[in-house]
Amino acid sequence: MVTSEDMTPSFSRKIPDGDDRERSVCRHCGFIDYQNPRIVVGSVVVAGDGRLLLCKRAIEPRKGFWTLPAGYLETGEAPEEGAMREAREEANAELKIDRLLAIYSIPRISQVQLLYRAELLNKDKISPGPESADLKLVPWRDIPWPELAFPSVVWALNAWNESKEEAAFAPYTNPQGGL
Amino acid sequence: MVTSEDMTPSFSRKIPDGDDRERSVCRHCGFIDYQNPRIVVGSVVVAGDGRLLLCKRAIEPRKGFWTLPAGYLETGEAPEEGAMREAREEANAELKIDRLLAIYSIPRISQVQLLYRAELLNKDKISPGPESADLKLVPWRDIPWPELAFPSVVWALNAWNESKEEAAFAPYTNPQGGL
Predict the structure, then answer these.
(1) Rounded to two decimals, what is the model's pTM?
(2) What CATH number should be reported for the domain holding residue A104?
(3) Where does the record place the region Disordered (chains A, B) (predicted)?
(4) Which of A21, A40, B144, B154 has a C-alpha 20 to 30 A away from that of B136?
């Protein structure tokens, strides 16, 4: 008899037929768990008065630190749609996406981040969603740099500041040495 | 007794605890198969004489049609590294990546494509890899438009042609109405 405990997923590493690298294959059912890098979509969100939207993380990792509204792109979604959904989920914020600000690649955690420059359309109606403990709109000079959650938040805010007067530009990529 | 047939993966759709949308969950072992969009990386590859590299597909889909060297980004890879690997696998081509040419989103098949402009470094030494039936280097006027494999190949070649004299530009995105 196979008990429910026997049936918990149990993966071993092997190279499937016709493949050229090791994958995780379930010992029980043969399911191949193809792991591909995941796409994070998010935005540097600017209100009409130039203030920037930050969200205080209510969840790990980096709970209590400030971040941009961002998260995993879902299947069937265009990246801009995903960035708008994340802002809605985390801050009840309605965005107008302006353009792609940056593409960051974080191979260590297998993420590619697509970060947009966006305009906040409902600044008087934003409120924290379940993954946010708090929100704020801050002018550039008041960004809490030491309390930002991730390096790419720092990079994206700097990229926004450098390019804020520009209409067309190549998207920023990882700063020198930045992984 | 559970036979091997009983153990083939069998997924049903349900919303896992703490999640907000349906996922495929294995009836046998409870494994949750999070499906995220996948990242395709590839290049418009140009030889020093201005000719463009095309690869004839040896595999389905669109076997026998011409495409750009491109494929799925693997875990732990930066997108530029993935684009270089794909050119090596499909054409034994060594590239110098120049810049991001285009980002195309194909939500219907949950793909985000990052296509680079790249220089071919070893034009006299290219040869078809296992997924290519043939290769060719063609001048712009000889591109076999009706025999290109995918709409995004057409889009990327046009984007390359439009921007080939430009050093810095915003990456192209899906043409109007293009999904």
Answers:
(1) 0.82
(2) 3.90.79.10
(3) 1-22
(4) A21
